[in-house]
Amino acid sequence: MSSANSAGRRLAAAVWVLAVFVVVMALSRVWLPLLASEHGAGVDRMLHYLMVTAGLMLLGGHVFLGYMLWRFSGREAATAGGAPEHRERRWSLAAAAFMALVAEGGVLALGLPVWNRYFLSEAPGNALTIEVTAEQFAWNVRYAGTDGEFGRTDPKLITLDNPLGLDSRDKRGADDIVSLNVMHAVAGRPVRIRLRSKDVIHSFFLPNFRVKQDAVPGMTVEVWFTPTRQGRFELACTQLCGFGHYEMKGVLIVQTAEEFARWTAEQSRG
Amino acid sequence: MAEPGFARRYLFTTDHRVVSLQFLVFSMFMALCGGAFMVLMRMNLAWPGIKWPLLGSLFPAVMQSGIMKPEFYIALVTMHGTVMIFFVISLALVSGLGHFIVPEQIGARQMAFPLLSALSFWIVVAAAAVLLASFGFEGGAPASGWTAYPPLSAVRTAVPGSLWGQTLWIAAMGLFIVSFLLGAINLITTILDCRAPGLGLFEMPIATWSYLAAATLGLLTFPALLAAAILLLCDRHFGTSFYLPAGLFFGKKLLPNEGGTPLLWQHLFWFLGHPEVYVLALPAWGIVLELISVYARRPVFAYRTTVYCFWAVTVLSMVVWGHHMYVSGMNPYAGEFFALATLSITIPSTVLGVNMLAGLWGGAIQMRLPMLFAIASLVMFGSGGFGGLFLGNATSDIQLHDTYFVVGHFHLMIGGVTLLATFAALHHWYPRMFGSVMGETLGRIHFWLTFPTFYVIFLLMHFDGLAGMPRRYYSWNKYDYLAGVRGHQVWISLLAFLLGAAQLLFLYNFFRGMRRK
After folding, report:
1. Total domains present in chain A
2. pLDDT under 50 in chain B at which residues?
3. pLDDT, position A199
4. Which of A75, B246, B427, B439 could cysteine-pair with B258, CB 3.0–4.6 Å?
5. Are residue A179 and residue A104 in the same domain, yes or no?
6. Mutation choice for A interface testing from B146, B367, B381, B449 by most A CBs within 10 A
7. What is the pLDDT at residue A131?
């Protein structure tokens, strides 16, 4: 065996081993965080579709590449090549058509309907509204309270004791519930997040709920989702916001309606 | 006539072959800097908050009593990205190899504008000097990521690196862009105007075509970033509000700005930022196609179709920037458009990948060093490309945006594809450059330490991204949902140190080879 030949076969073997590594890693555990929201099932369907199709294409590509390296390495002369362009082109275009079907087809059939439901529809009428105002490096959380209306805020009123700039002259704000880094929600009841930022861009990421939305200063962006699972879930910032970016953690507690009502009553009394 | 002296021959020269070497050697110096930043980052990620007494005594300001400060960590993230993308890959692959390969392939005796070649090089040296100097200023190096999103990059009190470092970053990028534009004009004119008599456009070697497309794309998109950077400079120092809305609150103080929007920067930045990926990828693909044809001893597969695909990628890459902004607060209808546009760019990219593969069929493959690296680059292109399907799709991107999936993906594409193609080209054209070859054994050791290591590191990051691991984090210890994947960081760091050390072998081989005749 010539040295070029064995070098080609070594590389073929390496390409196959790497493909096996990817497949073993992919199957070794469930990678996505535990699912806890309704639309998240659609996001996961999209992800699973891609994991399977892209995974198969990756595996097939590696196997085929390795096969050619194994078979054609170290030969004296080529036995193919120089065919007219239109005959070669057929193969490239067939592959492109296949990719278009897999990629664009997946987006149209599985992706956009979920996207539209997540971003382009209004939250249902019974949704619980939570205003989240991000700042370096914390999440200010506010509920409208029993009257269902938020009090006015003004950046000019912001002080250390009044981080949101609540206007005490506005009666609607008297019963607003304000807290830091902790949100409460009800399983099965849609949640509407009104997202704002006081300083730089932050990003509101609830890994278990497949929710991610940048909090952009100067804008109020709304996202909504429906929690399907009770428990205590983590909120992380996913837009670089300064040296404390990695510590900007929050918590979403999903409870039963009774537990939530009890919590609301406690807060209003306090 | 007297022989020209050292300075005239090697420093202030307009000879394109020497300018090419200047770019290559300078990019290697910058790679050492970018690599050092990586080592520091990986040390902290594997063992966050641990004490490094030696570093503490060397750099007391940023490694207080040996523990890395979080603001220094994000400064390293920023500098690593900026240096590697603009001052390593772009310099080595586009400017460095471009100055050598293009005239070589089209039979030009020199570049169209030899003076611009020299100017382009010396301006980039100034750019790098300004960028690296930022470490010495109050507040340290810029720390808003290579993407420099305002307000973090616009408000000087938002993060320590924003005090002065960000201003130097803007100046460095301005100089870099000027240098790149001079180089692009030079490449385009050379290819269109200086070909050997009788060499038609569709008879040009495929690598030259890829340089023509890449230079054209850079020429059309880099000015957008230059304009954006000037606006950012005005916001920082001259009281304007291009990117700053009303109601910003920093350090107990309300800022007087009003009327701007941070999203404007993102649109302008990514109008260059995404095409930049293709400015780097196109020449890499051209080189891989070229070398596969040489070392499989058969013509480039579907040559004309390949050329058309280069141009399809060039045009489409200018209408896909919004896929970096799906969850930015941009209009969700725009998200739909960008999802479809982005996936349409997979079609010409697939054709290019398939043509590389098909170029091996029935060939007589000579697995020499350049071919090893070319095939490895093709493998990175395939695996990285499949990851792109996840990120180009708005729905799956909701979960993956700004996680390690993105970090893994772009390192395969603008790190792996381009770096390995650069090695392939350097091994292939080395004899034409220096009349000698690099050591074969050392070359093979370097290859086997580089390719699988690189692949494993960044594939692993994709899986961490699926688990929801956010990027640009100093540590993940606070987050319970990442408990199962945090441990990967130690492995990734160890492999990254190995990968970095292996590149020193290449540098040694490169410089030793010149002396062997």
Report:
1. 2
2. none
3. 94
4. B246
5. no
6. B367
7. 96
A36 close to A226: Cβ distance less than 8 angstroms: no
Looking at residue B517, what is its pLDDT? 61
**Count: domains in chain B:** 1
CB contact under 8 A, B302 and A85: yes
Whether the pLDDT of residue A200 is over 50: the answer is yes
Give the separation between CA A133 and CA A124, rounded to whole angstroms. Answer: 22
Could you tell me if A91 and A24 lie in one domain?
yes
CA of residue B44 relative to chain centroid, distance = 23
Interface A–B counts its CB contacts (< 8 A) at: 335
pLDDT for position A1: 45
The CATH number of the domain holding residue B278 is 1.20.210.10
CA A8 to CA A16: how far, in whole Å?
Answer: 13
A63 and A100 together in one domain: yes
Determine the residue of chain A that is closest to B354 in CA distance: A92
- Give pLDDT, residue B288: 98
Identify whether the C-beta of residue A255 lies closer than 8 Å to the C-beta of residue A144: no
The beta-carbon neighbor of B351 closest among A95, A102, A116 is: A95
B324 domain residue, yes or no: yes
Which conformational region is residue B247 in: left (phi greater than 0), alpha (psi within -120 to 50 degrees), or beta?
left
Separation of alpha carbons B86 and A11, rounded Å: 31
At A105, list the tokens: 């087809």
Domain span including residue A205: 128-269
Share of chain A above pLDDT 90, in %: 67
| Same domain flag for A46 and A140 | no
**Mean pLDDT value of segment A192-208:** 96
Interface of A with B in 165-194 (CB under 8 A): none
Instruction: Give yes or no for residue A154 having a pLDDT over 90.
Output: no
The reply to whether A249 and A138 lie within a common domain is yes
